[in-house]
Amino acid sequence: MTTATAKAYFSFPLTSVAGCNLPQIAFNIYNPVIRWPRVIQRSQAFSVSTQITLNCSKSLNNTKQWSIYLCDTTSQICSQTPALIQLVSQLSSAKTSEIYLQGQALPLGTYLFNLTVSLSAVSGFATSAYTYINIIQSNLQVNLLSNGTSSITNGITQSILFQPGVYTVDPDSTYFDPTVNYLVFIIRRIGFFCFVLDLDI
Length: 201
What we know:
By secondary structure, the protein is mainly beta. The chain has helices at residues 82-89, 164-167, and strands at residues 2-4, 20-27, 38-41, 46-56, 62-72, 77-80, 98-101, 109-119, 126-136, 159-162, 185-188. 17% of the residues are buried.
């Protein structure tokens, strides 16, 4: 496991080489402070995209490489775990200017996404830039009925059984535990009614 702090990701080297200047990396959505990361729900697919400007009269040939680090927000130290290394190695977008991840690809936590761009014309001439992303728990999809509200029909003598604990979906999991804050409503429809359900799991 390797660890690094944000200070390790400033552009390097700080001087130019004859005919070449450092590539410039600009994030489309830029969150360079660990306390204010970009927030993504775990079930959502997302991408981190950049605009790269190359300044080298010798050649524009370059290589791009993304790295993902798991961060401890207390110590502000970010670690590159074997699982993250393997994940990046399997992504075809990890060598482009925009890295793409499917939903649930990362566990909950704060991550540092680092892009390094190296110019092939000059050995060791590269620049890096980073941004922070926080993966949070997805919102529950609350369903009161098995078939949604379309199953409600007219009739003053009909009963409706609301079971949000049974039909609610957790996008982050294939299983939803109905015993957690389980709610069951039995409402006898005598006339028109209106209700607001607040399900806090």
